[in-house]
Amino acid sequence: MENSIKWGRTRDFFAAQLRAAQMNIYSHFTEWFDDTGLSPKQFAVLYVISLNPEVNQRQLANVHSTERAAFGETLARLEEKGLIERKASKTDKRAKVASVTAKGEDVLKRILIGIDEQERAFTANLNDAERHMLLALLLKVNMPHRES
Amino acid sequence: MENSIKWGRTRDFFAAQLRAAQMNIYSHFTEWFDDTGLSPKQFAVLYVISLNPEVNQRQLANVHSTERAAFGETLARLEEKGLIERKASKTDKRAKVASVTAKGEDVLKRILIGIDEQERAFTANLNDAERHMLLALLLKVNMPHRES
DNA sequence: TATTGTTATACTCTATAACTATA
DNA sequence: TATAGTTATAGAGTATAACAATA
């Protein structure tokens, strides 16, 4: 019964395979780093803030291809967890700059120590050459390209 | 200023690149097929239903790796749009089977006609060999593998 | 006038738990 | 007892529009 499902061309569609891969890595990541309570996006945001402590919210939102309004919510969640702090920019009173707290640095460090192993485990079906190829192809796809 | 953002290892992480790719194709798909009002997932669900009109909701949910409760909501949205119908199974009074309406078939047809062009446009940075390679690698990653 | 961040609003997707009808 | 589907609840993520403060 379960085996009689017809898939048609489902497996040929990038949209479907990318979505499946993204859901899988989301689950894998949150399970692997369960103690931190962070999602892949929250980790990425925390990581970029730690590298750019003087950057304002709009710039951070741009980096993560997210609207200002939605991105403010993401930052609010990180702030509620005590992982970042926000304060007014010294040079522009409209802007806020975020910085990672000591607790945030600790969480970040734990993920950075484990992330390579986590990603290798996630891509356990691939050998090293395939792993590098997949990452390179994803980067290439994600590069901005001319509108058709 | 915008250019001084430090990315660190962000571009090395599968989690970040898969998430970016999935967001990009979601935007591209919904823009390309704006007149249908469907998301990639809704299209995939509609497509699988059209191929498997006698399959119940639990089986459909399994195909799409979604919990029964959440999947019921997805079907409810398709039903509200008049693209599918649900009726009780003849063989199991607990179960429901979904089928695509005439309107649903029309929407599905429009997407299926354009999907190859849409996916080629989305992967405009890749040549044919790279495109096939990317899809093959995604399929391989998405294959179930042993727990470590 | 334009920009930064916020608030309000809305929709999709995800999950868990408890419920009902049936098997 | 177990299963199919629903409802209730919660949270993350996404987006648009309107607003106050500032540039």
From TrEMBL, chains A, B:
Domain HTH marR-type: 11-143
Gene3D superfamilies assigned: Winged helix-like DNA-binding domain superfamily/Winged helix DNA-binding domain
Keyword Protein biosynthesis: no
InterPro entries given in the database record: HTH_MarR-typ, MarR/SlyA-like, Tscrpt_reg_MarR-type_CS, WH-like_DNA-bd_sf, WH_DNA-bd_sf
Domain of life: Bacteria
Example GO molecular function: DNA binding
Lineage: Bacteria, Pseudomonadati, Pseudomonadota, Gammaproteobacteria, Alteromonadales
SMART domains for this protein: HTH_MARR
SUPFAM superfamilies reported in the protein's UniProt record: Winged helix' DNA-binding domain (SSF46785)
Protein name: HTH marR-type domain-containing protein
A biological process from GO: response to stress
